[in-house]
Amino acid sequence: MTDHLATPTIEKAPDSPPAAADLATMLLIRHFELALLDLFARGELHGTTHTCLGQEYVPVALAPLLTARDYVFSNHRGHGHYIARFGDPAGLLAEIMGRAGGVCHGVGGSQHVFRDRYLSTGVQGESLPVATGVALHLKREEPGALALAYIGDGTWGEGAVYEALNMAALWRLPLLVVVENNGIAQSTPTTAELAGTIGGRAAAFGCAHLRVENTDPAEIRAVAGPLVERVREGVPLVLEFVTNRLGPHSKGDDTRPAAELSRVRAADWHAR
Ligand SMILES: Cc1ncc(C[n+]2csc(CCOP(=O)(O)OP(=O)(O)O)c2C)c(N)n1
After folding, report:
1. Which of 7, 37, 99, 249 keeps 20 to 30 A from 89, CA to CA?
2. Contact 108 CB / ligand 1 (< 6 Å)
């Protein structure tokens, strides 16, 4: 078929640290998440929260590739997605704490944030069909804009993902599916729940796929940027980040063996 179906990989991170502006946002997200875990431990927060520790560079790499006309559909692990798009850690923290001044006046909480063209949901597999519908609307009414949906590796267990990919490819919709493949879904390793590969599944629907093993935002943008521009022209893309979840699934629920935790900590971009 066409060249966009190739599944190239951006490998390895450089030895030098990320550019200052990228690093500043990555560190802001890192410390925001650490502060949340600390607040929970001290009984200042209620409900639940899922931190993106280890994955901060993903939305930081993507944010400059997006415009205000683009929709972003975030998921349960979305604090970094929000901060990379808007900054505004104070508005998000107030939201998570259920306070006045929160992005949604404190009624959305950690997982259900709505601002401009940014929406998050805690329901796995909910956002991709919605993003596909929005992508259809954008194609008709606002050509050049795209809809981005963040999903995890475990969310590929939801049938709605495949209905969405089918429609997006068939109708040539400006849909960007960003997969944060952190190797685990709550407590289930990806190897125990996903047959084949995400690239193979994207190819089955005629969607382009790029696998990113690099953690440097500028290097990621250099390769992903042209593919994102093709999304705007109606070539849906599955952009798969091979990443690591440093923290627990939500708060104190990390069931991984010590050796696996050592492996993910050694792979953390923060040391570099
Ligand atoms: C429909 C649905 N089923 C189950 C859950 C409970 N749940 C929340 S996150 C999660 C695991 C998600 O794994 P993955 O998609 O890999 O994302 P990650 O948490 O690793 O970022 C589960 C099972 C949910 N939120 N929605």
Report:
1. 249
2. no
Task: Determine the Cα–Cα distance for residues 167 and 127; give it in Å rounded to an integer.
Answer: 14
For residues 168 and 207, what is the distance between their CA atoms, to the nearest angstrom? 8
Measured in whole angstroms, the distance separating CA 265 from the mean position of its chain's CA atoms is: 20
- Whether 3 has a pLDDT exceeding 90, the answer reads no
Q: What is the pLDDT of residues 35-47, one digit of tens each?
A: 999 999 999 998 8
Q: For residue 76, how far is its CA from the centre of ligand 1 (angstroms)? A: 8
Phi, psi of 101 (to 5 degrees): 95, -10
Work out whether the CA dihedral 73, 218, 263, 252 comes out positive or negative. Answer: negative
Q: CB of 184 closer than 6 A to ligand 1? A: yes
What DSSP string describes 127-158? HHHHHHHHHHHHHHHSTT--EEEEEESGGGGS
DSSP state string for 168-201? HHHTT--EEEEEEE-SEETTEEGGGT--S-HHHH
80 C-beta closer than 6 A to ligand 1: no
Q: Which atom of ligand 1 is nearest to the CA of 153?
A: 16
Measure 88 CA to ligand 1 centroid, in angstroms: 26
Using DSSP, state whether 178 is helix, strand or coil.
strand
Helix (H) or strand (E) holding 198: helix 198-204
Predicted pLDDT of residue 6 = 53
May I ask the CATH class of domain 3-271? alpha beta
CA pair distance 55, 77, nearest whole angstrom: 10
135-173 tens-digit pLDDT: 999 999 999 999 999 999 999 999 999 999 999 999 999
* Cα 127 from Cα 179, distance rounded (Å): 13
* Domain residue ranges in the chain: 3-271
